TrEMBL record:
InterPro entries: Glyas_Bleomycin-R_OHBP_Dase, VOC_core. The lineage of its organism: Bacteria, Pseudomonadati, Thermodesulfobacteriota, Desulfobacteria, Desulfobacterales. It comes from the Bacteria. Residues 1-50 form the VOC domain. This is VOC domain-containing protein.
Length: 51
């Protein structure tokens, strides 16, 4: 599952403030920035923003 987010930094910070553990934000080859978060069942969810 993947979600496009307008403000990736704010979303990442909000997850951290809520006690969740997203991966670090990484720049991708195609210019997008991305981070991942696992749901309670271990499924990886992608959050991305165009670079």
């Amino acid at each position: 599952m993947s979600f496009r987010i307008d403000d990736l930094q704010a979303a990442h910070r909000a997850f951290l403030e809520d006690g969740l553990v997203p991966t670090a934000i990484r720049a991708q080859v195609m210019g997008a920035d991305v981070f991942y978060l696992s749901d309670p069942e271990g499924n990886r969810i992608e959050f991305w923003s165009p670079g």
